Amino acid sequence: MTPTSPPPDAAWTDLARSGILVLDDDVDVRTVVSRCLCNSGYTVHQAGGLDEAREQLAQQDIIIVLADLTLRHGESGLELLAELQDQRADIDVIVMTANSDVSSAVSALKAGAYDYLCKPFAVEVLLAAVERAVDRNRLAERTQLLDHLDTRRQADEDNLEQFLVSLASAIDAKSRYTAQHSKRVSALARILGEAMGLSATRCDLLALGGRLHDIGKIGTPDAILDKPGSLTPAEFDIIREHPAVGDQLVQPIRAIAELRPMIRWHHERLDGNGYPDGLSGDEIPLEALLIKTADIWEAITSRRPYRDPMSVDAAVRAMRAERDVSIPAEIVETFLKAIQGSPFALPASVEGRPSQATETPPPVNQIEFAQRAAIKLQLAPSAPGQVAASAGMAHPPALPGDDRQLGQAGV
Length: 411
Description:
17 helices, 411 residues, alpha/beta, 2 domains, Rossmann fold, Hypothetical protein af1432, 5-stranded parallel sheet
């Protein structure tokens, strides 16, 4: 049957453009109800029996059914209600009954009907019932859309997180001196976090922060990372940029927002002489200090282009020299105790230290893309205090320069 068309100037909504099916064996009732709905901007389809209703449902976009309970030839709107509950539960059914006994309408509600109308009913009552059903349908549609978007966002964030981890491995692989550096820092940070009594969730975040702490080095030239001699002031300024660059690289990923302080502030010092923001004392988050501790130990016990790895005794002395200068003494001593007997306590030249086995890096085009992004970020670094403000922290402005002391280099 041809649907009743709405007037050209009707105030349509997206859901109003979807159809309403009026099922009643009385043609006069169908006509009056359809005209009222049409005049309110709805698209209306009509059916005089169950077979015709099924045909309309198969062919048209129906969101609401107005169904008379008692039809001719022994048919009932309850039959259609049962079918819709089984096959199309997204369609709201409003039952209509001329029976003064509302028990049948109540039974319909228990069977899944959205609402009921007792004939005769006023136009205002009809429109109010339909509007409530439309609002319910709209809410369900929006909820479904939000759930879908949230699922897509989570999948995108998971994929991006995995890409960043792979990218961190690629950064390590840029230099034979830093192969597997981030992976070992991650393992050391987890050991330290557990020794400090952190929860399993915080230790997981700490380990991921260890993997990504140097991700900003994607924009650092290999010539600087592999330079055998001292860095020039200009070269060290470039090195000092990598925490802020890494922070900006992960900033879009809300799922790992808690990693940003570790990435940005793992080169800060208690005495305020760190970088990039010159934080001091309690301004430095605990996790950033734990990453810093793991980073320093891994760096000084590994071979670098500018020096051989330290012996265990020398490394312990060097770490203790940093107590309450760049790292709290409690963290240093907890760390040294936690790694006793661990392969990580061995210098790089000793068999048994975690290996430098290679991992598959991301495709070259992805690395080049990240490098270009990092270069752009370096040209327009975030203002000091931006990250701290988002984390609810305050700190002094970044210092103009630095040196290559123990707690500073980590490269």
